[in-house]
């Protein structure tokens, strides 16, 4: 299962990122300024039914099919959202912005796993009518579906920060200024 899961993550995730980026590019060229936020957010929501199939199915093959489709839809955010961060951030801080996005993504997924584990330990004493497998399924559904929904909300909200291509580098507000003098010079322009 471990090798199968890794293969699914690798191929479905990479394919999803590529196709999500392609859809975003075509949609942006058609004039949809907020395409990166919409593609990423809709991908998170579209993954939810397949998450349900993966977790609730008692058939191994159906669960694997659900996992493939879940990864295919849920990972479409990465290509377009990383591009959006790079296009929005000042060139001086693009590396920091992408690094912060990567760290935040990794920390939130690790935190979700921790919370699910902590919740399982806490819930064992309270829900004696449920088997351990049922509790894990419920917690995974709540944890993962909750993170997808929260991600979708943040992704939809992020469209406020998408800048048009006509914006100059000076119009992009940097996350970190290199010096107070630079800040004064930028305000004078």
UniProtKB/TrEMBL annotation:
InterPro entries per the UniProt record, alphabetical: MFS_trans_sf
Ranges that cross the membrane: 6-25, 37-58, 97-120, 140-157
The keyword ATP-binding is assigned to this record: no
Keywords recorded for this protein, A-Z: Membrane, Transmembrane, Transmembrane helix
Region listing for Disordered, in residue ranges: 170-189
Coiled-coil spans in chain: none
SUPFAM superfamilies, per database record: MFS general substrate transporter
Protein name, UniProt field: Major facilitator superfamily (MFS) profile domain-containing protein
Organism expressing this protein natively: Fibrocapsa japonica
